[in-house]
Amino acid sequence: MPEGLNVWRVLKGAGVKYVKFVIVDIFGRPKVEITPIDVARDAFVDGVAYDGSSIPAYSTVNKSDLVAAVDPHAVYVETWNGGKSALVFTNTLDGDKPHPMDPRNALKQTVEYVRSRGYEVKLGAEVEFFLVRGNPPSLVDNGAYFEGYPLKDSMPVIEEIIDHLYLSGIGHSKTHHEVAPSQYEVNIPAGDPVQVADQVLVFKILAKSVAQKYGVTATFMPKPFWGMNGSGMHVHVSFWRDGVNLFSSYKEPTPELKAAVAGVLENALSNSVFVAPTVNSYKRLVPHHEAPTRVVWGIGNRSVMVRIPYYGMRINRLEYRHPDPSANPYLGFAAIILAALEGVERKLEPPRPVHDVAYELEGVKETPRHLGEAVKLASEGAATRALPQPLVKAYLSLKEKEWADYLNSVGEGWEKSWNKITSWEYQRYLDVA
């Protein structure tokens, strides 16, 4: 019996009434076809037929009939919705091959390429977000980092989100109040990069759905409020061979870890458009708000771009602090992995680690000033060379248009608008980032 049919039978037996087949668009946003469970049976075998011309950049109207194959290993029951529906991820096909415009395909191919080079990559993500009311938004609580007093308007939301992270299949997670008022962080456990990217999307859907029940919004907009910390999506990466973590050591980073750090730093500017992909992303990347502005690394230093976590014990991974939660996790993760792999394979040497606060360092590379600059810097990186070229071309074109739309709508240059959050950004990103 086909594996997909076994999954369908399990879902039906568990009382699932609807299947939401997920197609990931070029921005990393979920598009779904909602199918009653009995009708969904055929899709688990034959795939989901859909109009590709209506998904941004996927296809043209004259070549719009596409099929998405079901991934039977990527199924999440919407326990926050009473368990009556399930999210099932798909991969769009181009005939019998992976479609080049599907970012989920791009990440799968990246992981397979890393495996062909003799490595396994594991990846985890710390996803920050705000709970807000209205648009323009207002804060839900005035809590601080690791807030211990009960927050009546936000804690029930957070506790329910945590419950469903486990019940839906993502796994056990820890959370805490972050530095800014109304800001929280959830950890997606480390694992296969495609699985983690799927779980980032499931978490966003989950968080937004639970928040709506309480009359608030869970927003993954990188910088919803000027003058306080924005939200990052810190990505933790390790490379393995024959079951051994090549980044694991005591006190001193391994040669492989340092080489990976060097690769990530070398590609940081070209990868910025993939990991910090919105106009609003660059209002987060400003000094003294725990977001990186200098392309440097350090051990236990949260002001740098690449941090090696070290709590007086074992080193086992790198933490890339450049990304934010508006990123398409499939493209962002692929770009990070390719950069790290380039460093390892070329045995690159990073500069000396930075021990001081990095924000005021001079004579080092800095993050792009804005999205327009990030688009221009993207052409020389490992990701733009290795990812499917039609996908890269379409993505950069859409990001260039996004930048132009911002300038046209705001009616003033970046120099006059970089230090305020505009209504254009709230309309564009607050609910859908």
How would you characterize the overall build of this protein?
It is a single chain. A hairpin with a 5-residue loop joins strand 1 (18-24) and strand 2. The protein contains 14 helices and 18 strands. With 433 residues, the protein is α+β, with helices and mostly antiparallel strands. The chain is globular, with a radius of gyration of 21 Å. The protein has two domains: 3-97, Ubiquitin-like (UB roll) (Roll); 109-429, Creatine Kinase, Chain A, domain 2 (2-Layer Sandwich). It is an enzyme of class 6 (ligase).
CATH topology of the largest domain: Creatine Kinase, Chain A, domain 2
The CATH homologous superfamily of the largest domain:
Glutamine synthetase/guanido kinase, catalytic domain
What is the annotated CATH architecture of the largest domain? 2-Layer Sandwich
| Tally of discrete structural domains | 2
Secondary structure tally, helices? 14
Backbone shape: globular
- Give the CA-CA distance, first to last residue: 39 Å
Percent of residues in helices comes to 25-40%
Largest sheet: 10 strands, mixed
The count of strands amounts to 18
Under the CATH scheme, which class of the largest domain? Alpha Beta
